[in-house]
């Protein structure tokens, strides 16, 4: 199983890059394309707020601290990118805590397009066809998780009541992923599908929650099947 994670929007953490290179890259939470560290900024200054979460979005990239880095290195040592950056307060004072730009350096094809009911879209001759997984009412957690939509339904029965009154219910949907494709992996991004997302294993997500890493949330949950990912089927 797998979680697609995102950063919670938090108004108390606003920084701006001081030295963004002309040829800078935007890695978001993660990306699947090659780049050099010379294309990444090295310093940012706070614009407002006081908090310093463990993981937050920063100007097209991200900033993560040693708590997150230590957790990643415990699961997959030496695989992923951690580019050191300097954070400063509004008055220019250096923040002592060490932060990094993080990028997962494993790109996998694993989302089962057909089983998930997704479609490829053609944007015209200037862009390759693509599929979008970010629209739709997907389950966000394992059904046994207290934050899952399944747990909410067990508690409140809203969908069951809706169906009993004769309405069609298509929520929540289940995003299907290939178990063989992600076996043994803990952090990765997509290859031809979901290439700018950060995905983590159930074990790593549980470790995030146990360590109380702030602020990472789950946007999609991938339900694992035994199907391999076959390009001729999925594309």
Can you describe what's shown?
Helices cover 20% and strands 26% of the residues. The chain is of the alpha+beta class and 235 residues long. Helix 1 runs antiparallel to helix 6 (202-211). The mean pLDDT is 88.
What is the gist of this entry?
With 235 residues, the protein is of the alpha+beta class.
Write the layout of secondary structure elements.
Blueprint: E1 2-7, E2 14-17, E3 43-48, E4 55-58, E5 61-65, H1 66-75, E6 81-88, E7 99-103, E8 107-108, H2 113-116, H3 149-156, H4 158-164, E9 175-178, H5 179-182, E10 187-190, E11 198-201, H6 202-211, E12 216-225, H7 231-234
Parallel strand pairs: 3-6, 8-10, 9-12
Antiparallel strand pairs: 1-11, 1-12, 2-3, 4-5, 5-7, 6-7, 10-11
Helix pairs in contact: 1-6
Tell me the quaternary state: single chain
Mean pLDDT: 88
**Count of DSSP helices?**
7
Question: What structural class is derived from the secondary structure elements?
Answer: alpha+beta
